[in-house]
């Protein structure tokens, strides 16, 4: 029996990529459970299989072995309850902000007066109400990333998959945007899985962190992050005294060569 609070269950998956030149084992016998409402980060060395894991969760890549369950159902393909936020904002330059945000709804054939209104409300709620008719090039990188998140939220997914969503931003913007994104996700009560190679980002944003080995990705360790800080803000959380203990432990576990 699958427990209902386990919104995501990854059971012993392996992923082998077959190419003309041979086979790459990206993931090996990996299991992970994510509870509804949790924010889990996946940290691992570059090329270890993190994006592959998200692709499996999103139903874009079929595991060679094992199975993934979302809300108790075996994943066979893409699923509208799973939203994906990519590394780069991928906004279309010829569409204005509102048109970009409505894109996911259009693709899923869910664009109605109501869903359009909800998308506008999200943009307004998160400080983009004045920019509905602006084009992406008129916005800062941080604002564009916020638009990309709102586009993902507009389709009202229960689970958000975030693949290094801040890596294209400079350090200052990255801190500010991760703070905003964490607050938005908290307010909207989503279950989130964030891939990052930034240890501090992972600790400051997450309830739990899964550390992966270098390729093929296996779970090396899982950390419950408990910081003595009441606030949701990742910037504030970085000031908690326990922060550096987690940092040092995870740093040692990452076998970066
Ligand atoms: P990460 O996101 O951790 O950097 P990836 O999941 O993107 O790692 O890739 C893991 C490994 O699988 C890498 O060696 C990469 O080259 C390989 N890989 C990823 N996607 C494909 C693909 N579509 N076909 C073949 N090999 C791939
Ligand atoms: Mg990747």
Explain what the structure shows.
The protein is an alpha/beta fold. The chain has a domain of 128 residues: Rossmann fold (3-Layer(aba) Sandwich), CATH 3.40.50. 33% of the residues lie in helices and 26% in strands. It has eight helices and ten strands. A six-stranded mixed sheet has the order 6-7-8-3-9-10, with helices on both faces. Strands 2-1-4-5 form a four-stranded antiparallel sheet, covered by helices on one side. β4 and β5 form a beta hairpin. It starts with 5 loop residues before the first strand and ends with a helix. The mean pLDDT is 93. The structure holds adenosine-5'-diphosphate and magnesium ion. The site of adenosine-5'-diphosphate has 13 residues, from β1, β2 and α1. Magnesium ion binds next to α1.
Helix and strand arrangement:
Layout: E1 6-19, E2 22-35, E3 39-43, H1 50-57, E4 65-70, E5 73-74, E6 82-85, H2 97-107, H3 113-125, H4 141-154, E7 159-163, H5 171-188, E8 191-196, H6 199-205, E9 208-212, E10 219-224, H7 234-237, H8 243-253
Parallel strand pairs: 3-8, 3-9, 6-7, 7-8
Antiparallel strand pairs: 1-2, 1-4, 4-5, 9-10
The structure holds adenosine-5'-diphosphate and magnesium ion (MG).
Give a short overview.
With 257 residues, the protein is α/β, with parallel strands linked by helices.
CATH topology of the domain at 1-81 and 211-257: Rossmann fold
Strand line-up in the sheet with most strands: 6-7-8-3-9-10
- What would you say the CATH architecture of the domain at 1-81 and 211-257 is? 3-Layer(aba) Sandwich
Tell me the fraction of residues in β-strands, as a range.
Answer: 25-35%
H/I helix tally: 8
State the order of secondary-structure elements, H for helix, E for strand. EEEHEEEHHHEHEHEEHH
Number of strands: 10
Structural class: alpha/beta
Give the overall pLDDT as a whole number.
93
Determine the fraction of residues in helical runs and give it as a percent range: 25-40%
List ligands, each type once.
adenosine-5'-diphosphate, magnesium ion
Shape: globular
The N- and C-terminal alpha carbons lie at a distance of 41 Å
Q: What can be said about the biggest beta sheet?
A: 6 strands, mixed
Low-pLDDT stretches: none
Q: Please write the CATH class name of the domain at 1-81 and 211-257.
A: Alpha Beta
> What is the CA-based Rg, rounded?
18 Å
């Amino acid at each position: 029996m699958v427990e209902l609070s386990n919104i995501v269950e990854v059971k012993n998956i392996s992923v082998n990529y077959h190419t003309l030149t041979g086979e790459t084992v990206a993931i090996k016998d990996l299991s992970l459970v994510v509870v509804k409402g949790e924010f889990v980060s996946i940290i691992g060395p570059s090329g270890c299989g993190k994006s592959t894991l998200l692709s499996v969760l999103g139903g874009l890549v079929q595991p060679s072995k094992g199975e993934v369950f979302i809300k108790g159902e075996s994943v066979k393909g893409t699923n509208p309850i799973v939203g994906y936020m990519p590394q780069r904002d991928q906004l279309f330059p010829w569409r204005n902000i509102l048109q970009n945000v409505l894109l996911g709804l259009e693709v899923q054939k869910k664009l109605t007066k109501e869903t359009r209104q909800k998308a506008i409300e999200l943009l307004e709620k998160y400080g983009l109400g004045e920019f509905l008719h602006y084009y992406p090039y008129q916005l800062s990188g941080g604002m564009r990333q916020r638009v990309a998140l709102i586009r993902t939220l507009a389709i009202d997914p229960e689970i958000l998959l975030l693949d290094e969503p801040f890596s294209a931003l400079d350090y200052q913007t990255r801190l500010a945007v991760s703070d905003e994104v964490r607050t938005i996700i908290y307010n909207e009560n989503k279950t989130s899985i964030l891939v990052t190679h930034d240890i501090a980002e992972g600790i400051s944003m997450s309830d739990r962190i899964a550390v992966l080995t270098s390729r093929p990705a296996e779970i090396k360790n899982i950390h419950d992050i408990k910081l003595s800080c009441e606030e949701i803000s990742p910037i504030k959380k970085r000031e908690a005294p326990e922060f550096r203990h987690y940092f040092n432990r995870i740093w040692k576990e990452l076998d970066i060569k």
